[in-house]
């Protein structure tokens, strides 16, 4: 089965392109410029990460 990778529209202008796909109930993440490296996670874990990022929990890292 071919994966359908999706890229956020916000990444088009910055070159910071992260793509997402779904396979067998898991979420797959990759960088457009290095598509051979894929991170697998669950929807729940990704949602918790995004909630933390929106709340500023990782702001000290950038």
Please name the defining characteristics of this protein:
four-stranded antiparallel sheet, 62 residues, 4 strands, alpha+beta
How would you characterize the overall build of this protein?
The model has no long low-confidence stretch (mean pLDDT 89). The protein has one domain. 19% of the residues lie in helices and 35% in strands. It is an alpha+beta fold and 62 residues long. It has a four-stranded antiparallel sheet. It is globular. A hairpin with a 2-residue loop joins strand 2 and strand 3 (26-31). The longest helix has 12 residues, at 43-54.
Query: On the 0-100 scale, what is the average pLDDT?
Result: 89
Total helical segments: 1
Strand content: 35-45%
- Which structural category fits the helices and strands? alpha+beta
What is the β-strand count?
4
Low-confidence segments, ≥5 residues, pLDDT <50? none
- Gyration radius over CA: 13 Å
Shape: globular
Largest sheet: 4 strands, antiparallel
Helix content: 10-25%
Task: Please write the string of helix (H) and strand (E) elements.
Answer: EEEEH
Q: How would you write the strand order of the largest sheet?
A: 1-2-3-4
Q: Give the total of domains.
A: 1
Q: What can be said about this structure in brief?
A:
The protein is 19% helix and 35% strand.
């Amino acid at each position: 089965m071919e994966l359908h990778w999706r890229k956020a529209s916000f990444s088009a202008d910055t070159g910071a392109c992260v793509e997402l796909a779904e396979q067998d109930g898991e979420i797959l993440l990759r960088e457009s410029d290095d598509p051979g490296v894929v991170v697998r996670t669950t929807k729940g874990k990704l949602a918790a990460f995004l909630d933390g990022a929106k709340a500023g929990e990782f702001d000290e890292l950038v």
